[in-house]
Design goal:
Elements lengths: L3 H20 L1 H4 L2 H26 L7 H18 L5 H26 L3 H20 L9 E2 L5 E3 L4 E3 L3 H23 L2 H11 L1 H6 L4 H27 L1 E2 L6 H14 L6 H15 L7 H15 L3 H17 L4 H13 L1
Antiparallel strand pairs: 1-4, 2-3
Length: about 350
């Protein structure tokens, strides 16, 4: 029997350690690395939102950029066109925008397609959103929206000044840690386990009286809402919303994060996002070669480490445990073959 309290404490400790590691970045790094760390924190939750759909509901999405971009542009429009609206309301509207996009497109996509066809359809919808952004004057067309100011949150009794890059960076890591923790709680709740049951055996779950499409749509909307929230949080940090954040290449990022870290693990996308950020920083001067480096890395992970880095570490830990227990060399060899087959 799974001890969910122990698992919650373990994951809470992981989130706390990650939060502490991000918290010390402004003290040990320059402003450029701090900016990169802030984007990595956002990408971690962006990857977790995609993996909720993939490892949770078993749905492959190639269009998560439309949610991320939708939330970012909603926040940018509220900040520039309606400055009297409180910042927290702007974040809520950004998340709701992504949820609405996911609801509309999810109703169409889940009824019309499944598997690879569903993935291609989400990619088509994402490109449609990108084209609409580039053709809409209100959204700045190809130039995007610039000059987005960081806010001061007025709580009545006191206010929180987030106008500096450092203060907003701390806001990002705290909010992202809270969202990641809530997402873990959802995935381990009865509703989250029901969605995972649909991925494992859709026919049997439907036979039990579960409306499969409704729960798949629920996962799709929740995933889109979280992705849009990430986009809404990012915009005041970068102070610009450009059409590139809704382009199809942004949809590949959470996929890459998940494959790098391990799709079968909750914190897999987090490991992948951190590694991707380190690679992006290391190849920043390689003009024209950065994308090639990332592509080669992805190919190597898929071919050589199919379970991602966390899967590799788990297999190594099991092997070391068996060796410590004194199993025979023949058993080691047979175990290695079975793990390679998996």
């Amino acid at each position: 029997m799974i001890d969910y309290r122990a698992r919650f404490r373990t994951n809470l400790m992981i989130a706390g350690c990650g939060l502490a590691a991000f918290a010390v970045v402004p003290f040990v790094a320059n402003s450029g690395l701090m900016f990169l760390a802030g984007l990595v924190a956002i990408n971690i939750v962006f990857g977790l939102s995609w993996n909720l759909l993939f490892s949770g509901a078993g749905l492959l999405s190639f269009g998560h950029a439309m949610f991320f971009g939708g939330g970012a542009y909603a926040m940018a429009v509220v900040s520039l066109r309606m400055p009297e609206v409180p910042f927290v309301i702007g974040l809520a509207l950004g998340a709701a925008c992504g949820g609405l996009i996911a609801l509309l497109f999810g109703i169409i996509a889940l009824r019309r397609a499944s598997g690879v066809y569903f993935a291609v359809l989400t990619l088509a919808f994402s490109e449609l959103v990108h084209i609409l952004i580039t053709k809409t004057t209100f959204l700045g067309r190809n130039d995007g929206l610039v000059g987005i100011r960081r806010p001061v949150i007025d709580l009545g009794v006191f206010s929180i000044d987030l106008t500096s890059a450092t203060s907003y960076y701390y806001f990002i890591i705290v909010v992202m840690a809270l969202v990641a923790t809530m997402l873990w709680c959802f995935q381990n709740s009865p509703a989250g386990r029901l969605i995972q049951a649909i991925r494992q055996d859709m026919t049997r779950t439907a036979f039990l009286g579960v409306h499969v499409q409704v729960w798949q749509l629920t996962a799709f909307v929740l995933s889109g809402t979280i992705a849009a929230f990430c986009g809404a949080v990012m915009v005041p940090f970068t102070q610009i919303a450009s059409p590139e954040i809704a382009y199809w290449t942004v949809s590949t990022q959470p996929i890459l994060f998940t494959l790098l870290g391990g799709a079968g693990y909750f914190w897999g996308p987090a490991v992948g996002a951190i590694l991707f950020g380190a690679i992006d920083f290391g190849t920043r001067t390689m003009h024209g070669l950065s994308e090639i480096t990332v592509g080669i890395l992805l190919l190597a992970v898929v071919l050589m480490i199919p379970g991602g880095l966390l899967g590799l570490l788990k297999r190594r830990r099991k092997k070391a445990r068996r060796m410590a227990e004194g199993s025979s060399p023949a058993q080691h060899e047979q175990s290695g073959k079975s793990e390679a087959g998996q």
